[in-house]
Amino acid sequence: MAISTLSPASSPNFAVRFALLPLTVAALFLSAALLFSIQPLFTRMVLPVLGGSPSVWSVAMVMFQAVLLAGYAYAHALSSCASIRRATVIHVALMAAAAAFLPIALPGNAALPAGEGSVMWFVTIFLMAVAVPFLAVAGNGPLLQAWFARSQHAAGEDPYHLYAASNIGSFVGLLSYPLIVEPNFGLVAQSSLWSLGFAALAVLIAAAGITAGQAQSKAIIARVTSAAPLAFRRVCQWIALAFIPSALLVAVTAHISSDIAAAPFLWVVPLALFLLTFVLTFRKTPLVSSEVLHRLQLAIIGMVIVARSFALTPDIAVSVLLDLAALFIAAMSAHAALVALRPEKERLTLFYLSMSLGGVLGGSFTALLAPLLFSSIAEFPITLLLCLATPLILAPPTWAKTGKALALGIVIGGAIVSCLYAFPDVTGPQREPVLVLGLVMAVMSFVLLYRHMLAALTVAIALLAGEAWLSPLNGKAESVRSFFGVHRMVASTDGRFRLLFHGTTLHGARQMTDSAGAIVKDAPPTTYYHPESPFADAIDSVRRRKAQFSASIVGLGAGALAWYGRDQNDWRYFEIDPAVVEIALDQRQFGFMSPDDRRKISIGDARLTLTSLGDGSQDLIVLDAFSSDSIPTHLLTVEAMSLYARKLAPRGLLLMHVSNRNLELASVVAANAEVLGLTGARRLSTNDDFKNTYRSAADVIALARAPADLDDLIQRAKWWSLAPVADVKPWSDDFTDLPAAIYRRLWSKR
Predict the structure, then answer these.
(1) Fold for the domain defined by 534-748
(2) What is the layout of strands, in order, in the sheet containing 497-502?
(3) 8 Å CB contact between 496 and 512
(4) Residue range 534-585, pLDDT digits in tens
(5) Transmembrane region positions (predicted)?
(6) Is the pTM of this model over 0.90?
(7) Separation CA 324–CA 630 (nearest Å)
(8) Which residues are within 8 A (CB) of 356 and not within 5 positions of it... i.e. 6 or more apart?
(9) Where are the domains of the chain?
């Protein structure tokens, strides 16, 4: 039973009438801003240790959601069992205890264990570093709204509109981090600013609690016994409607970070849109009707289906925008349904607790369970399908409608599969029939919108049919999934090459047969590492000076660079992902490495594993630690490059691969090199016959201690001296500027 306040005859005092609302709004705003700025701050701290994995943010969101659930449970218990004054004392005491964990910083012994312990390590560090301060802030939203509802304020009868103020704070906190905080403040300064905000919040909480408590002290507190029992079905609806958008949020975030960069700057965009939907839906009057939202949702998801299943969006920007649009509309639809089902104010904290539980379950499914169940990113299409069920949660369909929808969906899904059989090269000139079929499917779904269940299942089954055939270049693929992403090994369309994809990016290939179908033995590498590549130039330059030389290769991929070290005795390899190691050593895949090479491989983050090398011991260090074009930024900082330079032998070369579709990194390397007193040379190779040779263009920088060490490269064709770029700041472990890197890449494409 909930606690309710029965207002006395006297009107509320001056403080309640004029001070309580602004105090509550200010506290909610600041609390939410702190709550959602700590997420990118903390993940930015752990990235240098976790190697830039896109899964960092996915797991982080689940951990934060779990503690948020604990905070909501704490708020529910506190508001149900204590008066406002007593609850204020207890909560301020908790915040005072949490202050002992500030400023936020990683423990001094925060070293990532080798092998598969990344998730548990991350959970442990989270609990030690930020769990307690986050818990103290997490309960503020429902707690403050409950206090406001129990006061005598005129607006207390419907306190749910205050949730919009809270989410505006979340929105501002998230966007200010990548746009203002991260580009202008280092991590130490960021942590100090957060601590100051925490102190200010404690003052606002105390003031709001004392003010609200004045009104309650004049009221009669009674147990509400006449309230109708809450149906368990209603609680399940709240949980389900919170589960769906939360699961999609994590899936979309993983997709974006795996194809652009593992960085808070990009991670906050989906979450900011997600929070914006709360602002737009938790209103006294709906901004958009549920019917319109359902139609928009079906239309945008149909567009995503066609685009993904038939590879019609080669431009990553278009793909990302479609995914974000689907997330925004789906979250709007689910959250609007939650607003429609909100309970009376006495059950406010239970409502938020149920929403939080649904969020934790949805995030856990996508971030923790899906990687164990699926060898590909299957959770993305699955969560899209779940979004179509939003109106069905509110009004379950009859069996008759379900049967008709299933029959029509099977017909359309079968047509898609038949078309894919007939026209397997959907990215070539015969793709028009598939495109027409997709458009027909979308039109049919739209026409059938008045029977949403029919349309939803039609699109769902069509999606499953398309996803079943989605793989790079439509070849039959083997998939391996790890904490660091999805790796797919697939044959080219003509069957001559074996290809390795990480996400959507080609990271290795080898010719297996010639045009006549004969097996090609000892074929050289292709992609970035072919014999005329910048990598081959640099390796040959070192070999000319020293027949036997030491080399450390950071980033294994298919093991292609090992082909150049077959006659060498002192080559070592450093890889953070155990799954990549197994792929490179598997003789059924590429064969650049032998099983005996396992002893030469060190598993772990390069910033840690390279420390095992002796200073001045390496004639060549190659940095090629990409993850599906998701750059581990901590490997491109001044501190990291200083480590590499210490390990170089006299006249040694540091080779850095800076090819990237979305980030311009060469100028960052140049700025860092200037700080460290290193000299550089650069080569940007091109290839006009990729389809037949799978030779990729590569942007490679060679660094050395003295200009004379690069003379051999500079004298070769297409190499030129590296020079710093004006206004590009060096990156450090305390400062990176991804927005500027993205802008420079976009500008270079104009």
Answers:
(1) Rossmann fold (3.40.50)
(2) 477-482, 485-491, 497-502, 505-511
(3) yes
(4) 999 999 999 999 999 999 999 999 999 999 999 898 999 999 889 999 999 9
(5) 14-36, 56-75, 87-106, 118-139, 160-180, 192-215, 235-254, 260-280, 292-310, 316-338, 350-374, 380-399, 406-423, 435-466
(6) no
(7) 18
(8) 65, 68, 69, 72, 242
(9) 3-393, 397-470, 534-748
